[in-house]
Amino acid sequence: MSLTLYGENYWYSPYVFSAYVALTEKGVAFDTRVISLENGEHKAATFTASITGRVPALEHDGFWLAESSAIVEYVDETFAGPRLLPAAVRDRARARQLMAFVRSDLMALREERSTATMFYQRATSPLSPSGQAAADKLLAVADRVVRGTQLFDAWSIADADLAFALQRLVLNGHDVPAKLGAFAAANWARPSVRAFVEHERPGTPPRPY
To answer: Would you call 85 exposed, middle or buried from its count of C-beta atoms within 10 A (0-12, 13-18, 19+)?
Structure first.
């Protein structure tokens, strides 16, 4: 079986993170390859076989797929192992909602507490009013859904994605309610997550995520 995850060359993208954790949780053997966005490698004809030509991308026995949410669902439905998304229909819908939320909202927070501040150098300036508003929204949403160290009866990839978003605040020294801090810490300690967090990284990246 040929199974390769293509990621950006700094290993700090939340989207690569989600796909990497999904594959690791399933326990399938996979290779990783780096795509240099600065050098335009994502525009190569072989890579654009994924249709949208975005990172991350997954190549499985000649089938190419991009977009992290699509990769997560494909991995969950293709390979044996623990579920990545909840079994119950409504829980699964909620998980997808939260995954979409952290991908499409909170832009000011994502800019001011980018993943570079998580894996490279911590932020030194305070949040702007819009950044603080985004942080408050993240905390309010998380407070409504977090119960203990996971969102549902069993762990899901949505736990990892939400914890990643919360770590933008935690790692930069912002005050986070104890319940949410414990949730973020528990998921950050998960072996699949640690494998990504501790991945070797090159010098400071040129752009935020």
So the answer is: buried
Q: Is the pLDDT of residue 204 over 80?
A: no
pLDDT digits (tens, 9 = 90+) for 80-100: 999 999 999 999 999 999 999
φ and ψ at residue 29, rounded to 5 degrees: -80, 130
Domains annotated for the chain, with CATH where assigned, are 3-83 (3.40.30.10), 89-190 (1.20.1050.10)
DSSP-based three-state secondary structure for 51: coil
8 A C-beta contact, residue 35 and residue 20:
no
CA atoms within 13 A on the CB side of 164: 31
Q: Distance between CA atoms of 175 and 165, rounded to whole angstroms?
A: 14
**Which pLDDT score is estimated for 44?**
74
Distance CA 105, CA 141 (A): 12
pLDDT digits (tens, 9 = 90+) for 162-190: 999 999 999 999 999 999 999 999 999 99
CB atoms within 10 A of CB 187: 23
